[in-house]
Amino acid sequence: MTPKEILFSTLRRESPERTPWVPLAGVHAGALTRCPADELLTDGGRLLTALLAVNRLYRPDGQAVTYDLSLEAECLGCDLRWHPSRPPSVFSHPLADNMIVPCECTLPGPEDGRLPLVLDVTARLKSAVGGFTALIGVVCGPFTLASHLRGGALFSDLYDDPRYVRDLLDYCAKSALRLGGLLGGAGADVILVADPLAVQLSPDCFSAFLTPPLRMVFDGLRAAGLFSALSVCGDVIGLLPAMCRTGPDAVFVGEDVDLPLAKSVADRYNVCIGGNLPLNSLLLRGTPQAVLDHTAALLDAVPDRTGLILATGCDIPYGVPPENGAAPARAVRVGSRRQPASLKTRSSTHFPLL
């Protein structure tokens, strides 16, 4: 099986020959080619070069094209602050003083903002590596996009005007579905809906406000022939049943979640689960051997790996050493701690920066 066939098989809850590996390397891709994040996300040529470096060094079964949750917000009038080592941040909110729901004619389209760049790079990456690597298009989840547009007032709106929030979330879900369709048309195989701010909702609030719009997104992506996933960072074990009920093929969780417990929840809903290598304590500050050992132990902790995707639960930090980013690929190809693949027993691998 090719790497992408291994990921596809897992997403169908079959039993491929090994666990797939999905590093969510957004701006971190730029670190591999000495490209600052602000240049990476505005220069298609440099972005493609960096993504090819991720593919070559990290041997992923699936890889993200970008992990930039400001793309849609920028198209819709939010101002951004740019940074050399992390994604741009949103600092203005066009609906902060205007409690309106934009009409559908304003939804981001293929010619808006930086979307032409992302769609072009997706198509070019598909041509270069899409025969053996699954491409993952990342879109901003409805609650996070609504917060970009409305600002902090969105949280009081949940209580003061729930109908407005539902209408705004419906609009933001349509944005996610439109961009997901565009990315799929350009060559993405999987659409990951990343909604990190949803971790601040209670399970009941999540179900009341986010289940209908997210279900619309995932039903639409499935109808378009695309795999889908939902990612919410933080301690989401209490939210996990509600996340699964939105209907994605997979949910992605971070290091705050006990992976075997989370998998047992996802299994009840016939949903795959991706996770959950620690980002800062392990990938950023650990050693390659520590990453390898942790990954092997994580795999050993899940006896039934049906539906399991080894992944970073969120965007890899810019400064992660490439040797650390490459170690999980070695671990999944060995399979468990009972068959160690110590770095000391292999010839050293060099990771030249381009």
Automatic annotation (TrEMBL):
Biased composition range(s): Polar residues = 342-354
Q: Where is this region: Disordered?
A: 335-354
The name on file for this protein is Uroporphyrinogen decarboxylase
A single Pfam family it belongs to is: URO-D
Q: Highest taxon of the source?
A: Bacteria
Supply the Gene3D superfamilies for this chain.
3.20.20.210
Q: Name one GO molecular function term.
A: uroporphyrinogen decarboxylase activity
Q: Which residues form the signal peptide?
A: none
Origin organism of this chain? Lawsonibacter faecis
Q: Where does the record place the Uroporphyrinogen decarboxylase (URO-D) domain?
A: 2-333
Please cite one Gene Ontology biological process associated with this protein. porphyrin-containing compound biosynthetic process
Q: Which PANTHER family match?
A: METHYLCOBAMIDE:COM METHYLTRANSFERASE MTBA
